[in-house]
Write a structure and sequence with these properties.
Elements lengths: L3 H17 L3 H5 L2 E8 L5 E3 L1 H13 L3 E14 L4 E14 L2 E16 L2 E11 L2
Parallel strand pairs: 1-6
Antiparallel strand pairs: 1-2, 3-4, 4-5, 5-6
Length: 128
């Protein structure tokens, strides 16, 4: 039986690497066409293209230091299987010679489609 939770953790690691590489197309490749992402602070982005464009805009911003998402728990359930990922995130920006961070928690829902696991929904919450 495949270890779906390990696969999702690996995909998250690759997604983080895509952000570090400043590659918005690669970041969006982990998302379903109809993905919905709630950004910490309230904005909701609907669709793979809207999310790709938002990442591209941030990546062009001077001082953008990226995001790192760290899964704390991945639960697989149902048939066909769905994955629920809970974790923490950190965003970094450089300004005035200093690195600033914003952090919080997130939840992501994954579904197993014909081409593999893809993110259907992500919700990011601000934290301390």
């Amino acid at each position: 039986m495949p270890d779906h939770a390990a696969t999702i953790r690996a995909l998250r690691r690759h997604s983080n690497e895509a952000i570090d590489a400043l590659d918005p197309d690669y970041v969006a490749s982990f998302m379903a066409e109809d993905v919905v992402v709630e950004i910490a602070g309230g904005e909701v982005l609907r669709g793979r293209l809207a999310n790709r464009d938002a990442f591209a805009a941030q990546m062009r911003t001077p001082g953008f230091g990226g995001y790192t998402r760290v899964p704390q728990q991945v639960i697989i359930a149902g048939e066909p299987p769905r994955g629920i990922e809970h974790g923490t995130w950190v965003g970094r920006w450089r300004a005035g010679g200093r690195t600033q961070e914003q952090r919080g928690s997130y939840e992501a829902e994954w579904r197993l489609g014909t081409i593999g696991w893809e993110i259907v929904r992500e919700t990011y919450r601000p934290g301390s």
